[in-house]
Amino acid sequence: MEITEVVTHIFSAEGLGTMVKGFFFFLQAVYLFFAFMVTRQVKLMNGALKTPAAPMFSTLAYFHFLAALLILFITILVA
Amino acid sequence: MSPFSSFLKKPERTGYQGIDQDEEVLYIVRKSTLTTIPWIFTFILLVIAPFVIGPILSKIKIGEKSLFGLGILSTTILFWYLTSFGYFLQNLLHWFFNALIITNKKIIDLDFHGINFRNVSETTLYNVEDVTSTVAGTLGTIFNIGNVHIQTAGEKSEFEFYSVQDPSQVRDIISDLVGTKRPYGNN
Questions:
Q1: Chain B within 8 Å of A44 (Cβ-Cβ)?
Q2: Residues sharing a CB contact under 8 Å with residue A24, sequence separation 6 or more, in sequence order
Q3: What's the rounded mean pLDDT across residues B95-103?
Q4: Can you tell me the mean pLDDT for B133-149?
Q5: Among A17, B59, B131, B169, which residue's beta carbon has the most beta carbons within 10 A?
Q6: What is the maximum alpha-carbon separation in chain B?
Q7: How confident is the model at residue B187 (pLDDT cuts 50, 70, 90)?
Q8: What is the DSSP letter of B31?
Q9: Which distant-in-sequence residues (6+ apart) come within 8 Å of A14 by Cβ?
Q10: Taking CB atoms and an 8 Å limit, are B118 and A53 in contact across chains?
Q11: What is the pLDDT of residue B57?
């Protein structure tokens, strides 16, 4: 494959679509790590200030992490 | 009383890391609930945005083919709502946990920044030298929101707590508690 063909492919609908998908996967993977960090953050915060709202914050943080995981799987299956 | 109040008096089942057995949390002071309006409003805008942006994205075409197919578009919208929820959660956590805890022995200032920075400062009531409250600006005057500045004799000489609802009341509470620990003043 010549270089001109590669460039033509990159800027074709398929090529751009693949790039968008690749970037989107990368974003979601980074976000998944962030969501995991939030669960650790909530654990630290609940330890620093103990309140009756602690279980609610933990639930929200784990829900957020599981949703990030689920959406990443859906993207892999659908996109 | 809801734990989601900006000013809690004798909150139930509440403590902090390192609380003594004979210590009791008397007050928890957070930033005024009015300070949450900007990020709640932003969150509402983020929730509405896909209804406007979605149809525009679906129309972007390269040649005959749509750049965002139905699959990628729907997962993008799902991801958008996830990040919007993440934004809401982060702001809620920072508002809730950046608090000033006043116990019958100490004042504890909890500061959380970002997702991995935590700063906890504490001083005994005995070490408090001076408490000042400030209300400034038009909005501060209208809504009675201001800052509380605590001068101490400890290692960290100053505690500053911003955007508190009714700072005069907080100043008065701290001064009264310091008075019970040092009934004859600083001298």
A1: yes
A2: A75, A79, B72, B75, B76, B79
A3: 96
A4: 94
A5: B131
A6: 85
A7: very low
A8: B
A9: B65
A10: no
A11: 82
Q: Which two tokens stand for residue A51?
A: 């309140």
B82 contact residues in A (CB cutoff 8 A):
31, 64, 67-68, 71
CB of B60 within 8 Å of any CB in chain A?
Answer: no
What is the distance between the alpha carbons of residues A78 and B33, in angstroms, rounded to a whole number?
Answer: 41
Mean pLDDT of B95-123: 91
Contact with chain B for residue A65, Cβ under 8 A:
no
With 70 as the cut, is the pLDDT of residue B154 above it? no
Contact B33, B116 (CB under 8 A): no
Question: Could you identify the residue written with the tokens 């790039």?
Answer: A19
pLDDT of A46 above 50: yes
Between B17 and A13, where is the model more confident? B17
Q: How far apart are CA B118 and CA B25, in angstroms?
A: 21
